[in-house]
């Protein structure tokens, strides 16, 4: 029988787990998580804990200072197990799965799940635009899950496929997908032209070829991009030469299958974080040269500078 991946030392021993996080976050030695000091530091009696030698700081820190794991009661080797599950499952992972698989309480699993999703979220600022000269970027929208207050979402100027007014009782999602490359997804309060145009204009390189369906949401994009080509879904046209939105539809189908199979409840205010989790995995998929281990280390790297303060809802 094959050995369980969890027999690796960093999944079993909290000290080995800490060492792995240290080599990932601190390839050149300890860095103060409060002020960034690299030279002046003192070892304390507690393993893994340093005292900053910068006179303006003098604070104690460990490798998890300023990471999503900071001040967590869950042992670091269990964190790494959860991160591995998150990074290697194709269709997502849930707090219930973590609870059952790792033998931790549901409450602990819920915290782990949300913090790992946060670690998977790419910063919203300073992301380079998708696409580029000669590259195709597909933009498409979909609707998933009920909204809390449909009246807030019902508005003129919301359209679905075929140009009809959007379903005001569903959460709107827009995804931008580079053909053969990365995805970037957004949960939007409603799919109207102003919101969608801004997302498309801000996140796609204007030298790109933009492919969409014939939805009115993308009217006006012609002026912004090298080319804007559309397929007419309402006339049962799904591809014309290389013009299609199949990559975006493929992404939505992974997302929806994952959400249906794995996530029983997803509060609307957390939907962006679930999307970030699916984006993270899609952007590091096997076809782009990633393996489970590299993906897990990318989660550890993404855990820096992200702390969540919200509490379990029930
Ligand atoms: Zn410091």
Features:
binds zinc ion, 314 residues, 10 helices, 5-stranded mixed beta sheet, alpha/beta
Largest sheet strand order: 6-5-4-7-8
Bound molecules: zinc ion
Q: Approximately how much beta-strand content do the residues carry? A: 5-15%
The pLDDT mean sits at: 87
Number of helices: 10
Task: Write structural notes for this entry.
- The chain is of the alpha/beta class.
- It is built from ten helices and eight strands.
- The protein has helices spanning 9-12, 14-25, 76-88, 95-102, 106-120, 150-153, 193-203, 246-262, 271-283, 292-302, and strands at 41-43, 50-52, 60-61, 136-146, 170-178, 183-188, 209-213, 227-231.
- The strands form two sheets. The chain has a five-stranded mixed β-sheet, sandwiched between helices. It has a three-stranded antiparallel β-sheet with strand order 1-2-3, with no helix packed on it.
- β1 and β2 (50-52) form a beta hairpin.
- α4 (95-102) packs across α5.
- It is elongated.
- Bound molecules: zinc ion.
- Residues 32, 34-35, 37, 52, 54, 57, 59 line the site of zinc ion.
List strands and helices in order, with pairings:
Layout: H1 9-12, H2 14-25, E1 41-43, E2 50-52, E3 60-61, H3 76-88, H4 95-102, H5 106-120, E4 136-146, H6 150-153, E5 170-178, E6 183-188, H7 193-203, E7 209-213, E8 227-231, H8 246-262, H9 271-283, H10 292-302
Parallel strand pairs: 4-7, 7-8
Antiparallel strand pairs: 1-2, 2-3, 4-5, 5-6
Bound molecules: zinc ion.
Write a brief structural summary.
It is built from ten helices and eight strands. It has helices spanning 9-12, 14-25, 76-88, 95-102, 106-120, 150-153, 193-203, 246-262, 271-283, 292-302, and strands at 41-43, 50-52, 60-61, 136-146, 170-178, 183-188, 209-213, 227-231. It is elongated, with a radius of gyration of 22 Å.
